[in-house]
Amino acid sequence: MQKAVFVDRDGVLIKAPKINNRPTSIKKLEQIKIMNGVIPGIKILKKNFKLIMITNQPDVYRKKVKKKDVEKINNFLKKKLRLDDIYVCYHDNIHKCRCRKPNAGMLLLAKKKWNISFKKSFLIGDRSSDVIAGKKVGCTNFFINYNYNEKLPNKKSCYYVKSFYKAALEINKSLKNKDNE
Ligand SMILES: [Mg+2]
Ligand SMILES: [Zn+2]
Question: Do residues 142 and 135 touch, judged by C-beta distance below 8 A?
């Protein structure tokens, strides 16, 4: 079975513009800004893990963003960061879908396709919905805390970190520890 690191997009791989101290999604590829430390962090993780982006993009349904533009942004990231796969939920709450985080649908699809062991896998997010999804399937979760104006995840369900790079270092370290057992 494979090991994976599941990564959220907005606020994790790329900067998420904030409104009322809550993260939003960019609308156009031209607005993209890869977060500091993401490129070296990915490089570290790439050696041992499949890298899979999972992202909620409800703004498509809300008509704030065009699906075509989300796809452009995601394809750019896939190439630039050499991501193995990308899963997107375009639904909103009213659709009651299985993929919208905090539901674990995207993680389950990826598991099936890539033969992933959740127990050996990690998730990096910046909202409690990310952490809850990871917790549901039994990943080890890292939470990048920006102190958004919303409910933060329970500290028992994740490790709080300052950045993607810090999470990548911790994941790499835990892997080494495991190998020594
Ligand atoms: Mg996010
Ligand atoms: Zn969905």
Answer: no
Q: Active-site residues: which are they?
A: 8, 10
Reported pTM: 0.96
Class of domain 4-122+139-180: alpha beta
**53: which 2 tokens?**
């982006």
Q: Output the CA 127–ligand 1 centroid distance in Å.
A: 6
Give which of 93, 70, 97, 64 is closest to 9, Cα–Cα: 70
Rounded Cα distance between 145 and 159, Å, is: 10
Residue ranges with CB less than 5 Å from ion ligand 2: 89, 91, 97, 99-100
Per-residue pLDDT tens over the stretch 121-166: 999 999 999 999 999 999 999 999 999 999 999 999 999 999 999 9
Question: Which listed ligand is nearest to 97 at the C-alpha?
Answer: 2
Ligand lying closest to the C-alpha of residue 148 = 1
